[in-house]
Design goal:
Blueprint: H1 3-11, E1 19-23, E2 26-30, H2 37-46, H3 50-60, H4 64-71, H5 75-80, H6 89-109, H7 112-118, H8 131-134, H9 138-152
Antiparallel strand pairs: 1-2
């Protein structure tokens, strides 16, 4: 296993999608929420693979039914892709947005399981619904990300 692969495995638990870079002898895994807009646009245009979706699914503990609802696609669309096959731009964008939220949440909470549980519990700051229930719209995703940001900075939420 190369140093890049070792770093990816080590960081995988806090990073639902991974971007691994190697500069000379330094290996760095960058959490999705820290990618520049240009890196995110490139990833979306390149397409997110079924393998990457499977990694996201495994890390978040979400089933295909929930992912299909959040990504606004039929469950069959998610099942029909295999291995390295890529999703189209619109689905890839939603997958990346979801990974961005989870990546940020894992960093703020410092605990994957704690954040995954928090996502499923109703929250008064979101009108009494769970953050997960808000993820089926772009504005809902934005609200969840803002809520995580408030938590990060200690604002009562």
């Amino acid at each position: 296993m190369t140093k890049v692969e070792e770093a990816a495995v080590q960081y995988r638990s806090l990073n639902p999608l991974k971007k691994v870079t190697a500069e000379k002898t330094k290996t760095k895994v960058i959490p999705v929420y820290m990618w520049s807009s240009y890196q995110k646009i490139d990833a979306i245009k390149e397409g997110i693979s079924k393998e990457e979706l499977e990694n996201l699914k495994e890390q978040t503990g979400l089933d295909y039914e929930t992912l299909a609802k959040v990504l606004s696609v039929a469950k069959a669309t998610l099942h029909n892709k295999k291995g390295k096959e890529k999703f189209d731009v619109s689905i890839s964008e939603r997958i990346l947005l979801l990974a961005d939220i989870y990546s940020y949440g894992y960093q703020v909470f410092g605990n994957k399981d704690g954040f995954n549980s928090w996502m499923k519990v109703s929250n008064t700051s979101l009108g009494g619904v769970s953050p997960l229930q808000m993820l089926d719209t772009l504005y809902g995703m934005e609200e969840v990300k803002h809520l995580i940001g408030r938590i990060e900075y200690g604002v009562y939420s």
